[in-house]
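Notes to self, dolichyl-diphosphooligosaccharide--protein glycotransferase:
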Amino acid sequence: MGGSSKVLGLTAADQASLLRLAILGLISVVAIGSRLYSVIRFESVIHEFDPWFNYRTTQYLVKNGFDKFWNWFDETAWYPLGRVVGGTLYPGIMVTSAAIYNALHLVNVPVDIRNVCVFLAPVFSALTAVATYQLGKEVKSATAGLLAAAFIGIAPGYISRSVAGSYDNEGIAIFLLVLTFFLWLRAVRLGSALYGALTATAYFYMVSAWGGYVFIINLIPLHVFALLAMGRYSNRLYVAYSTFYALGTLASMQIPFVGFQPTFTSEHMAALGTFGLIQLVAFAQFLRGLMPARHFQVVVRGALVGLFAAGAGALVVLTMRGVIAPWTGRFYSLWDTGYAKIHIPIIASVSEHQPTPWTNFFFDLNLLMVLLPAGIYFSFRELTDNHVFLILYSLFAAYFASVMVRLILTLTPIVCVMAGIAMANALEAYLDFRSSSNNDGGGSGDAAQPADTQNSSSTEPSGAKRMHGWLGRTVVVVNLMYFLWMFQFHCSWITSSAYSSPSVVLASRGPDGSQHIIDDFREAYYWLRKNTRADARVLSWWDYGYQLAGMADRPTLVDNNTWNNTHIATVGKIMASDENTAYELARRHDVDYVLVVFGAMLGYSGDDINKFLWMIRIAQGVYPDDVSEQAFFTAGGEYAIDDSASAAMRASLMHKLSYYRFNEVMGQHGFDRVRRQQLPTKVELSNFAEAYTTENWMVRIYKVKELDNLGRRHRAAMAFDGGS
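result:
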């Protein structure tokens, strides 16, 4: 390449760099744009449930400053217990949004904090694409990096938690996950303490953002252990891991919600044990030069066996004595999929904690699932230290994603990288037409190929050589382009149809194709905000706690934090009890209003009647003498809501609050469109008064009646007698 190859004074290498930069920029634009369907179709609004807590706490941080935020005790949550907010959350996403908000205002860009929160995840998706490019480039080539970046930019498995309005921890955590792994592999390759420190910094940011940091602090030690077991110890590995672990652990302990957990919880013990092991291996390498080889082998083997036995024994003893905390139920459920349903029903009740159907993999990953095994194959062919990491990441992420739907999110980045490696190898082989012309002319093949590849190609039969000619290559490339085009079409359709509807605003289409907006949730929350006292306590199932606090601004008994199983079970017991018992319990807990979600009119299957069995199971776990799941089934073992329903079901507060007056709308022989059953003929209420029902009957709010004078005197007398 001479001077004639220059364009605008740029060499060929500069042109290639500029082209890669332009492509990466376009990928970033597509990554952001593909996540804006919800804003375009509806409006700039926060989605789902957990994001409303994040949004509310971000508002508090921006308004009151970091010190008050860090020490905030929220008296309106978990009434009457309250919540120490600063010490029970991962503050990364709130601090990031507040920093962006303050930076924009510093340069006189007037933007509302709501819009910062709504668009945060799409912006970070562009950064994730850049980090994925760097990771792909680190392990393979720039071509693999660009392909991996393009894949993760539009893959539904990542888009599902990063659309505009999805203001959840994962919105920034996946970027930090990929960034941490890229910096780690760079640190191992270079043996750089600087990159080890940068890895620790990215890890600290990850710890501040999401509980999924546990995946990092187990996968990196696993990578180190695998390299040691393969006999690949090096000073580079020692410097990288020692720097990362020491700085990363100290930094992570600065997050109050994490605290000293890295020193006494089981999920952190692998990292600690690997740190100790690599110190021993380094010391053994030091001893190698000080004694004869025969003596060295005996000493090392004895020391390793003894220390391993001592370490394992100490781990068992400390765990049994309670010094090291055992695995939590959430982690046990990753190894035993039936554990949560039996022991912790509140975890099993969450749909995203269920095992993953096979269809979900192809729904969220599509073509990438086919390319994943090919990427693993190419990684095995080279098997550098970096490729060992990719293989471990692929295998463990695939397992965890199969046992919990939510964890497809952590699988998506490595699938994109592996798919980028596989596609890059295919394109590099089939787009180089120089080798095909050499083969046609009897040449020895592509000089850029490895020697073993050249030797194997030289012994191929003539038919294979002809298939590797320009026609065969063209057919293969055209097919690859077709599959890529179909992949982007699939991603766009899935994103548009499945992941771009905010849960607080629903949409349906009539027979004529016209769209009908269902805004019952915000309607109900707005009514509560405008028509109830500021300190009015609202009882609902925990699913709606964050939305109630964020949109209605009213105290709640339980919310999505689910930290107190007994309190949640109490709410379940109230819903499962007969009206008089439920009234007594509601008054005892100072409840002013009860909110239920009811989808029988529209056919909304996510309503409280469908969730009712989980409320019963959770309540039964804490109050087995008062609540029995079997009592809510018919004699034939069916879950019915009509006149054939069990006596416990028809008497329960949940049943009455849901179907009260519904016959007036649907008629005496009306039909529940979710359960596909006829409505109960008569439902009466005496202790709860209907306060508000939304337009489509999706949200129903009831006021807990005040005690009359006779009731007050009677209760006062009972209290006096009991006290005396």
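- Confidence is low (pLDDT under 50) at residues 439-467, 716-724.
- The chain has 35 helices and ten strands.
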